[in-house]
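To: structure desk
From: M.T.
Subject: fold request, one chain
Message: Could you run this one when you get a chance? Sequence is below, nothing fancy, just the single chain.
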Amino acid sequence: MSGSHAGSVAAVGNKKGKRISSWKLSARLLALLVTEAFVGVTAGVGKVRTLIDEVSDASRQQSDGIGQVTQAVHQMERVTQTTAARAEESAAARS
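Reply: Done. Structure tokens follow.
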């Protein structure tokens, strides 16, 4: 093998080595970016879960409040009916 041919082979090998090294660096960078993206997604999922839990709690509180209002309305209806019945009895007794 002549000296110039050996130099050419070495240069080609060196270029391939640099390309492979560059690919390894690119793969590492890509892996790092993907990892960062997953960390971001995981954090986002945690925030969404927290919001869902808060909405669920608020819905439960609202439902409890509606139940209390419903009970109060029923109690007011009973009092109104009782008052009306007594008023009718009182009116009948006076006549």
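Reply (cont.): The chain has a mean pLDDT of 86. Let me know if you need anything else for the meeting.
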